[in-house]
Amino acid sequence: DAGITQSPRHKVTETGTPVTLRCHQTENHRYMYWYRQDPGHGLRLIHYSYGVKDTDKGEVSDGYSVSRSKTEDFLLTLESATSSQTSVYFCAISVAGEGAFFGQGTRLTVV
Amino acid sequence: AQSVTQLGSHVSVSEGALVLLRCNYSSSVPPYLFWYVQYPNQGLQLLLKYTSAATLVKGINGFEAEFKKSETSFHLTKPSAHMSDAAEYFCAVSDSGAGSYQLTFGKGTKLSVIP
Q1: N or C: which end of chain A has fewer CB within 10 A?
Q2: C-alpha closest to that of A55 among B102, B33, B44, B94
């Protein structure tokens, strides 16, 4: 257990509404990531953070923003949710010498 | 740019048979390579990793993988499949960066184990 908690675990929202997903870690790791998982695509990187207020875009960042005001929290925001953002979202942290470890995921449905 | 190709989106094996899941990668720098397993409705669990030490890597649940630079491969094997191995498996590659494992994933291989 890498001490990663994602909330909410499930969410249904309407097209055009803003949505924020939260990732919380308890072990003070520097690097945090948001991925989305879609059938036939594996996992794709949305955004990542390398420290408080330090973030950068990943492969599929359009329509998403992130914030990291504290080491332990990494927020993913969908400014105006679309049906194409229906997915399972995973947060991950890096542990030097060990690899990346994932949360349990958030299943988001945009209707 | 890095990429990962997993050959076969679905593999079926009989219980007790050899499991072989294929992964080929491309990377412009010496890579870190990982295999993850995902059980239904769960997160990803790290099975094993290659980080430039031994080329034959042993992981959890009896799985192992061999890094072959000449073939740019990192295939996952298990000598004898168990029903509990049924899951989806993902191969991933990362640049060897200082503590940052920004992963590029393959599309996954779903393993079915037939009794």
Answers
A1: N
A2: B102
Residues of B in contact with A48 (CB under 8 A): 102
Which three-class secondary structure state does DSSP give residue B85? helix
B49/A98 Cβ within 8 A: yes
> What tokens does B57 get?
């890597």
Check residue B27 and give its pLDDT. 83
Mean pLDDT to the nearest integer, A99-106:
93
- Calculate the alpha carbon distances from B27 to A30, A92, A98, B5 in Å: 24, 22, 20, 12
> CA nearest A47: which of A58, A31, A37, A59?
A58
pLDDT value of residue B30 = 79
Which 8-state DSSP code applies to residue B30? P
Amino acid A8: pLDDT:
97
Query: Using CB atoms, which residue from B49, B90, B98 is nearest to A99?
Result: B49
**Which of A35, A43, A101 has its CB closest to that of B46?**
A101
Tokens of B61: 């649940």
Q: Which residues pair with A34 in a beta bridge?
A: A47, A91
